[in-house]
Amino acid sequence: MLYQLDGFYQHEEDIKKSRFLALAAPVQQAEEAMAFLQAHSVPEATHNCWAYKMGEEYRFNDDGEPGGTAGRPILQAIEGQDCDRVVVLVIRWFGGVKLGTGGLIRAYGGVAASCLRLAPKSPIVALQTVQCSCEYSDSDLVRSRFAQFQAQVVSEVFGATGVEWVLALPLDQVEPFAMGFSNWTRGQGFWSKLAQTDSQSL
Fold this sequence. Notes:
By secondary structure, the protein is of the alpha+beta class. The chain is built from five helices and ten strands.
């Protein structure tokens, strides 16, 4: 299962006199990640190294560190902590002691992994969007069951004779809800699956 951060988080470590500060945040698209990096990079620091990942889309940057010693370890930390839709910036202030290639990989990857491990997270849950409608006489009963099945209301339209909803349900709740909906409306309601998506769980 993949996880998304609940919000901004930071973690700091001193490694052989160098100061490393990891900043992590949830993002939905590349532009949002780049804006975060621009807003939080510290120009006077020695290096501002980063990585982001959103599904199959990812990027990383070593910002002057030897190739493969900073950005990729940060990306590997993101993947190792089962995180997605996240940007991680690791800022380094050089303290006079060189870490070597292996030391840099361990430092950047380790600080990023610790930041993500400690950050509050929520599972990313696959959702099924469904469209359903029923007469007003059944609508209060149907609506009262939404919370039980973790149904999120995407839209609600009041018509001449009844209510039409577009709902997003966790995949494992779709069939139980469909069966319940048929019972609550005595088979008179309309039900149809729409697109599948994903979201943070509630």
